[in-house]
Structures are given as C-alpha cells and as structure tokens.
Write a structure and sequence with these properties.
This protein is an all-alpha fold. The chain has four helices and no strands. Helix 1 packs antiparallel against helix 3 (57-92) and helix 3 runs antiparallel to helix 4 (98-135). The protein is elongated, with a radius of gyration of 20 Å. The N and C termini lie far apart (69 Å).
Length: 139
C-alpha cells in the first residue's frame, strides 16, 4: 500500500472540505459585517474580558464590522480553491488531479490564514480607536 489508491477519494474529499470551510468562513464574515454575534460576558473567560473588544458594545461592533471584509476575502480564497479543485478533478480525474488539488489547497489555506490574521489585527485597531475616542470625549 503506497497511498496511490487513496488519491482519488482524497482529492475529492479535500475539494469538498475546502468548499465547506469556505462556506463557514463566509458565514462568519456576514455575521461580523453586521456587528458580530451578541456579546455574552457569561461565556467569556477572564482572558477574553481583558481584550479591548469587550470594553463596550461599540468596540465589539467596530471590531467585527472592520474584520468582516477581511473574512470575506478569506472565504473567497477558499471557495476559489475548492472550485478550482473540483474543476481539476472533472478535467483530469480524481487520481491525476491530486497535485493540482494539493496546490490549490495550500494556496487557499495560506491566504485564509493571512486574511484571518489581518482581520483580527484590523478589528483590534478599530476597537481601540473607538475606545480612545470615547475616552477623549468623542473628539
């Protein structure tokens, strides 16, 4: 068993996983773009409560609204990788497309990591800006 017999099923499974992951990130992007999920202090741990996001409802919403477009970009990268993978499977067959599927997966996942990290950083910056404006009296 050299693993070659798993390539057809693996390439299709990986393509579907990319699409499902892209749909999940897309869902989070839409939720964030609309101000994020409801804040629930009861479910947050002490480390979370120290974050600038939890300072007020306004900081929470600013952080999530700012991160929404970045999460959308991350989702689009995964969805493109999934569609490309399915296209490669349709053209070359599941066994012969494994190289293309792995390349698309790597590119899609790497771009998603970069855009999700950017979303987090940009969200925190937006929350700090809102918090600082409130402390200055809304200048």
């Amino acid at each position: 068993m050299d693993g070659a017999e798993f390539a057809p099923a693996g390439s299709l499974l990986l393509a579907v996983a990319l699409l499902l992951l892209g749909a999940m990130v897309l869902f989070f992007a839409v939720v964030s773009w609309h101000g994020g999920p409801e804040r629930n202090v009861a479910t947050a741990d002490r480390q979370d409560l120290r974050s600038v996001l939890w300072t007020s409802r306004e900081t929470w919403q600013a952080a999530h609204r700012t991160s929404g477009p970045w999460l959308l970009t991350a989702a689009i990268g995964l969805l493109i990788a999934g569609v490309f993978s399915l296209g490669a499977i349709a053209v070359h067959g599941p066994g012969d497309a494994i190289g293309s599927v792995l390349a698309a997966s790597g590119a899609g996942l790497a771009s998603t990591i970069v855009f999700c990290m950017t979303a987090g950083v940009r969200g925190r910056v937006a929350a700090r800006r809102v918090r600082d404006d409130r402390w200055r009296g809304g200048e």
